[in-house]
Amino acid sequence: MPLQPTLKTDVLSPHDLSLIDRYWRAANYLSVGQIYLLDNPLLKTPLAAEQVKPRLLGHWGTTPGLNFIYAHLNRIIKARDADVIYICGPGHGGPGIVANTYLEGSYSEIYPEIGEDEEGMRRLFKQFSFPGGIPSHVAAETPGSIHEGGELGYALVHAYGAAFDNPGLVVACVVGDGEAETGPLAAAWHSNKFLNPAHDGAVLPILHLNGYKIANPTVLARLPDEELQQLFSGYGYEPIFVEGSDPADMHQQMAAAFDYAFDHIAAIQAIARSQGDAVTRPRWPMIVLRSPKGWTGPKEVDGKKVEGFWRSHQVPVAECRKDAGHRQILEDWMRSYRPEELFDEKGGLIAELKALAPRGSRRMGANPHANGGQLRRELKLPDIRDHAVKVGRRGGEMVQSTKVLGGYLRDALTLNEASANFRIFGPDETESNRLGDVFAVTDRVWMADLEPYDEHLARRGRVMEVLSEHLCQGWLEGYLLTGRHGLFSCYEAFIHIVDSMFNQHAKWLKVSRGLEWRRPVSSLNYLLTSHVWRQDHNGFSHQDPGFVDLVANKTADVVRIYLPPDANTLLWAGDHCLKTYDRINVIVAGKQPEPQWLSMDEAIRHCEDGAGIWHWAGTEEPGFEPDVVMACAGDVPTMETLAAVDLLRQALPDLRIRVVNVVDLMTLQSPDQHPHGLPDALFNQLFTRDRPVIFAYHGYPYLIHRLTYKRTNHDNMHVHGFIDEGTTTTPFDMAVLNKIDRYHLALAAIERVPGLAARAKDTVDQMTAKLGEHKRYVCKHGEDMPEIQNWVWPYDKG
Amino acid sequence: MPLQPTLKTDVLSPHDLSLIDRYWRAANYLSVGQIYLLDNPLLKTPLAAEQVKPRLLGHWGTTPGLNFIYAHLNRIIKARDADVIYICGPGHGGPGIVANTYLEGSYSEIYPEIGEDEEGMRRLFKQFSFPGGIPSHVAAETPGSIHEGGELGYALVHAYGAAFDNPGLVVACVVGDGEAETGPLAAAWHSNKFLNPAHDGAVLPILHLNGYKIANPTVLARLPDEELQQLFSGYGYEPIFVEGSDPADMHQQMAAAFDYAFDHIAAIQAIARSQGDAVTRPRWPMIVLRSPKGWTGPKEVDGKKVEGFWRSHQVPVAECRKDAGHRQILEDWMRSYRPEELFDEKGGLIAELKALAPRGSRRMGANPHANGGQLRRELKLPDIRDHAVKVGRRGGEMVQSTKVLGGYLRDALTLNEASANFRIFGPDETESNRLGDVFAVTDRVWMADLEPYDEHLARRGRVMEVLSEHLCQGWLEGYLLTGRHGLFSCYEAFIHIVDSMFNQHAKWLKVSRGLEWRRPVSSLNYLLTSHVWRQDHNGFSHQDPGFVDLVANKTADVVRIYLPPDANTLLWAGDHCLKTYDRINVIVAGKQPEPQWLSMDEAIRHCEDGAGIWHWAGTEEPGFEPDVVMACAGDVPTMETLAAVDLLRQALPDLRIRVVNVVDLMTLQSPDQHPHGLPDALFNQLFTRDRPVIFAYHGYPYLIHRLTYKRTNHDNMHVHGFIDEGTTTTPFDMAVLNKIDRYHLALAAIERVPGLAARAKDTVDQMTAKLGEHKRYVCKHGEDMPEIQNWVWPYDKG
User: Fold this and answer.
1) Res. A429 pLDDT band, cuts 50 70 90
2) A285: which of A101, A261, B171, B221 fits an S-S bond (Cβ 3.0–4.6 Å)?
3) A234 and B231: CB-CB below 8 Å?
4) Domains parsed from chain A with CATH numbers
5) Partner B, chain A 397-436, Cβ-Cβ below 8 Å
6) What is the ipTM of this complex?
7) pTM (2 decimals)?
8) Which residues contact A420 (CB under 8 A, 6 or more apart)?
């Protein structure tokens, strides 16, 4: 196999070459200016100390390469009227993307105070990494971006998410060679097995072999081209190498590489589209750009190698205020771009350079795909009442809640099929999580080989499955940020794999909500199932309900957590979350058969309240405070709480019991901490001011303490939850191990109601004996006692 | 390039072939028995319904392949007296590894109640996935394992961690093709750029193309061999393909492939070792095993394809108690292995098969590397007093705490150089995190290309840097679990990338601590630096202190969190953590110049107490309770607290202030929740029973509420911490944005001391004005006001 396709060497005429080089120099000049200058943006006078920022912050090393790519993308967009967005993996090269959107005019349109003149340029420079200004990285504030790039690893997976169902779009994705060492990025190359050339857009990866990280070379940059060629061919791409440091030569190479890549993308798409659908998996082009780190910057500073080495990573020449010699290096460096050839007297980009940028929404800083809310259309959603479970007798029939949701999702997929703007993502778990009804109307996308006996696997489909939570999360983020809708269903324990991606998306939403020009995007919706209490096949490694603890740390406006106790409440939660925007919604619900409690009307009312008293379950008397509040959140805790109430009602018929169920966990927090927080008066009406609350909670018990610490009765909250006692055992034994089973809950109630323990000694002894009997039984028979398996809420005769 | 090396076809004589096939059948038989049978282990009578488990749990699909590999590894270990451990990526194939360790005798040595006879076999079967028995996955309970395999992605990185500094060891690592889709696994292939053939052992990856996940094919299994060959050549390996389903043919292929691989490993090592060190990076062999999922199991059940399809993933034929037809399929299946040719009447493996297993510690279930505590030697550690910072005047000089620790680590590396059992791991951040002094005595390991201008990059070294937190964490886990020591230094925000790996390691430790035969291993030590308060270059995306919230969820015995406020306390914490075992220690400390507070003697006393009153900072009078407690945890919060105390002392000289500093965060928790929890009486002595506590905490404030919710004075804890307000700004402005700066802390004290606000109105106005002045100043000048930058604790004239 030849190392790479033969490229033209004269794509650019001498004049065009000169123009594109000047455009690149302008971007480089503006990038350096942002890192260094407070004033004197056009260097009309020699650079004075006080014109240099007191704190020099930012990253130069990657920036000239990013600018180089941007300039060449501009060329090809203009030449072909191409629809392109730019994903900047090395997001710390923020000055580069800011500089380019400023040059093309999109920056000043969004931020008119940063005008296209000398004063605007001064402000552009000053604001960068400056208090009250803009962050150093590509971020929500940056026009044309859907990708922060602060935490590395997700550029390529975001790019693919943006390309799905966007057949006219080319997503140019710069992958830094540092980022390329991360796991999520290494897996993301295989996304090409899920991209359909007939119905999706294209991703053009540009691996930037910049050579160095903070203080090390990068692995890929220190491999021979032959090995890189094998690696990326093995990943299913056709790599095109662009290598060198001489600008003129590099411009010709890059122009030819882009021509080749865009030609090939067009050819791949034309073939697939002429056939009606993709028959085979194409070998998509990608570019490997090997250029010096800190290209065009100072070669050496204080006798040490800077350009082409890791010392150019951040600020290549420091202390330019105090050190006149360093300041001279800076000034010489900036003047080496010959600003007088780039900007006019007033600071505007000269006209023949300005003409190089695309126009209007073809500018990458103004492309609506990168401000997806502009393109977002509401989902058409079925009526949840059409999917409601009929609850004849409370707790009387066992239903798989997620299966009911699956039917709803099936209809949602049908309603939006024509819009092609809704996908379901999951790590090989759609069927396992009982959402399989969706396969009545769609398939899993699969561009690798197909076999005749495959089921629901096709070139086209709205379900995306790959055994990588990183890819599921990243694809969905890219899909949402470009204006579409989705749901991520995942085993509860393994959603921790994407903790950090969740963090970054929450940060993105927090910032973008504050930017008027960023239109709202659909919420990121998690359905966490196969949860901690029902890992019958898998045990301890699959038991972890702690993701919501992380979620609860985040800015209140952005996060919601729902714990529907049955199918109808789950329907409400799923439907509600799909209608929201600019949020992260977490729904935790089991997939195993479980008792159903609320009719659809009741479920809607209960969910809208977020938390409420289940009067039908308790034994309160009008005019009296209850003796004990049995609270619950989550499906298994709700069932065990009701079973505990049953035990208490039988043993202690005069005990006044209140049952409170919490669906929306954020109702527990104080209203000054979360918009869903119940007012204190209402909270006290539910949980009383002074009665013991036995709270059975789905996850780690500390979260309930943390959410309620400001509440009047918080000293009297006795929370039972997962305390890290897990293994492969029976469902009820898991509850017993963690003391969240009916016996422990009933015993806790007896212990906490003043004076009751003495009176109920026999009951206590019987329940304690039951726990022993249970343990002996399961260890002998391997299943739960019949009285546990067959327990039904006995007070509701339908 | 030829697709693969030419392999012999007649490695096994017909007799040897028959023997190894019978050994494999024995393992398969025992695997099926574990999933299905309660009794009648040798099938001496027709299988009765009640002899089948009531709940059928476990995973058959991957198991026959795992057994196949195990049998062939046994052959090669015996043939070459090789030192081999087995890492089982598809850990849900637990029955296979349990079956094999039982066959080789190591299982019964560790668990004598599971004897090598019929009764032992009955117990072996019953205990699997059974209450009171063993988990379904390979886990800490499984002899020979250092890898759980429940959460997929880490097999290969664990394998490399085990191989470092173990020159005699071959780590055979089975990578499932499901797992191979994950990010961490995709990145881990590049670990071969960090493995030195002269000084390290070898990793032999065995990619098991089993074909399917739960309900989907796998990506890699659906690629043509040519593309796989390119991919793994690109990753730097020489793939050897073993493909088919006919057992006899597959045995010959596998035997030849192992011969070839072990020959090549030996040759690579011999060359490097004869040269004294590795000169070039070798191309290590790997095996690609393509075999049917559920191999040798039922071909079809109820007319549906099972063998060679995803339906064989878990339990291929269900309901065998109730459904006699299914039970017959099960019985036929088990009898197809001809147990009468494998086990004698008493249930023992017949002698000529028993002779196939290696002996003693060469058995993979008894290899001491997989019970690393057996090999662990204590680290030799320098005296922290030799590295102490002299604190002439409290707060009077600015020191980079992590740099001081770097000097200590340098000496620790020197002391243990000969033992070759201590490494430092980090994602390209050792220098950035100011630990660069270690490079005086060692280098970064690098097996990719070297350039003459590289610095501290060499074929050999004790610092491992790669831009993947997953690889750092996984290598370290593998290194620790095989009996060595290490430290992982990481940017605080990005440690969330390995949240889930931390979870799984904590689970492993929790379980292994309860197993007498598992010897303690060294603790996993994190140094989290470049923390939330000093992300001057990076801003919001790099600001997240929430990892410790996750840590605090875990079993108390396993986790510790330290927040040293200065260099001497950091030295104590680092030294202490390196001496502990079977724990996960998290140290959070800044890398920027910061004031120093405690002499070494004071630091030792303070750290041993975990929390204490800083009498020199407060204004208490003997015999009086303080008016307010100013508490702090973390370096920046401590500095801001002392600055707040300074403001209060100047403005309100008669206010009785107590300063409490917390180093060991777990002292806050109640002693019944954590072994380090202070007794209530002592806690009350520090924090009072009723005085306001203004608590400046490094991370999310909720954690302090959660840890202290059982304490008497918890209603009076007013916690200031990170509330997700972040960006690129000055260090002091970051504190102000999150209200943890000196002014907000002092204002909070004034607000909370009864009656003080009215009396101190002028002070409140002045401080409020200062906050406004600050904001104006930083937005104009881009740096903090001189009075902030130059503030020094004024009460200690040293």
Assistant:
1) confident
2) A261
3) yes
4) 18-370 (3.40.50.970), 384-594 (3.40.50.970), 613-789 (3.40.50.920)
5) 428-432
6) 0.97
7) 0.97
8) A165, A199
